[in-house]
Design a protein that fits this description.
- The chain has 349 residues and is α+β, with helices and mostly antiparallel strands.
- The radius of gyration is 20 Å and the shape is globular.
- Helix 2 (56-73) runs antiparallel to helix 7 (181-195) and helix 7 (181-195) packs antiparallel against helix 8.
- It contains 9 helices and 17 strands.
- The protein has helices spanning 2-26, 56-73, 82-88, 99-114, 124-130, 142-149, 181-195, 289-302, 304-312, and strands at residues 35-41, 44-50, 95-96, 157-160, 165-168, 201-205, 208-212, 221-226, 235-241, 245-250, 255-258, 261-264, 279-286, 318-323, 327-330, 339-340, 346-347.
- The protein binds adenosine-5'-diphosphate and magnesium ion (MG).
Length: 349
């Protein structure tokens, strides 16, 4: 996890540096230096960089908003979390939610429907059991895993938009927003920045990158796509984007090793084990970061063929797929924009 945050941060800083220094050469009237701050929130390193306003207060306001979202959606603080309240009430009663938590749950249920439960917002029972990303990560006992796996079923999550309530039918069911909460938070940060007049910025929530506008020359930002086999800040290609999000999910991002085998953090509800298919990583390019986040996790779970279909079925959603045999598949809408920079990989038609 730390690897990934540092890498993406470095890639963006590097590219941003190149771009801003270019901007200075050709636009000597460039008014301000960028202002950038980092903070550890939502279990990841968050970096916000504003290029056209020297105003740290806007960034602080954005950090406070992320903290607020984290408090409501975390699975680590029972005093503030609406998700823990909902999980604790499973099998017994409905729970009143804030609009934030309701919106994320609703979008999570939509992704569960779109992928026919491969992505399942009620995957929490087995996420907790595996503990991947913590020091307690271990392979669960098969019978316990199976018992918890049987509690996964998004159709037993009931949402009432009028009352802003949610209910889980069976005792022990658990929702988990880990696959989309960062995307939602990135979108909320973008709103704050735009409302405060920011026109050029990059928001990075541990791999959920969201760009505001283009760079200071009004050219697209150049975002590096991580090489999933060499996660040390090396990228395999570049995608230019303006006012878009680039969200990457990879099996290399969070894992532990036991008896020489790697166990990563994206779990297959059909087996209870980490998903095992042809995709090593996928980057989604779209407008809203929650859509990028939901789609990136979904595509990893669906595999190349079904994942491509899912992406092509949505308007304004593009993707870069990287398979274990080092082939790179790019969807039609960004085919002419994406530049492969690492010749170890093969760009497919
Ligand atoms: P990252 O958090 O590394 O950016 P993702 O956005 O792909 O990666 O989300 C991975 C998280 O999604 C896991 O840590 C877990 O909380 C959650 N998750 C794991 N398996 C599933 C699944 N089948 N459906 C929905 N969410 C899942
Ligand atoms: Mg995701």
């Amino acid at each position: 996890m730390l690897f990934k945050q540092r890498n993406i941060f470095i890639i963006i800083c590097l590219l941003a540096l190149i771009l801003t220094s270019c901007a200075k050469q050709s636009a000597p009237e460039a008014p301000v230096n960028p202002v950038s701050k980092s903070n550890f929130l939502l279990g990841t390193e968050v970096t916000i960089t504003i290029y056209d306003k020297q105003d740290e207060a806007i960034i602080d306001k954005a950090f406070r908003r992320i903290s607020e979202i984290e408090a409501k959606m975390t699975i680590n603080n029972a005093e503030t979390s609406e998700i823990i309240a909902l999980n604790n009430a499973s099998g017994s009663s409905e729970v009143k939610l804030s609009p934030d938590t309701f919106d994320v749950l609703e979008r999570g249920k939509e992704f569960s429907e779109m992928t026919k439960g491969r992505f399942d917002i009620t995957v929490g029972s087995i996420v907790k059991l595996w503990n991947i990303g913590t020091e307690y990560a271990a392979i669960p006992e098969p019978d316990v895993l199976e018992q918890k796996r049987l509690l996964i079923d998004f159709e037993k999550l009931h949402l009432d938009r009028n009352k802003l309530t949610a209910r889980l039918d069976e005792k022990g069911m658990q929702v988990d927003l880990g696959a989309i909460a960062k995307g939602y938070a990135a979108d909320e940060v973008a709103k704050i920045l735009r409302d405060n007049g920011v026109k050029h910025a990059i928001i990075n929530l541990g791999g959920n990158v969201l760009t505001i506008g283009g760079n200071m020359q009004d050219k697209p930002w150049k975002i590096g796509i991580q090489d999933p086999f060499n996660p040390r800040g090396e990228y395999l290609g570049i995608i230019p984007v303006t006012d878009k999000t680039v969200v990457t999910s990879g099996t290399y991002e969070r894992y532990f090793e036991q008896d020489g085998k790697k166990y990563h953090h994206i779990l297959d509800p059909r087996t209870g084990y980490p998903i095992d298919n042809d995709i090593a990583s996928v980057s989604i390019i779209t407008t809203k970061s929650i859509d990028g986040d939901g789609n990136s996790t979904s595509v990893l779970l669906l595999g190349l063929e079904e994942g491509l279909k899912l992406i092509e079925s949505q308007k304004d959603v593009e993707a870069i797929f990287v398979t274990y045999d080092k082939k790179v598949y790019v969807t039609s809408g960004i085919k002419n924009d994406f530049a492969l920079t690492n010749s170890d990989f093969e760009l497919m038609d």
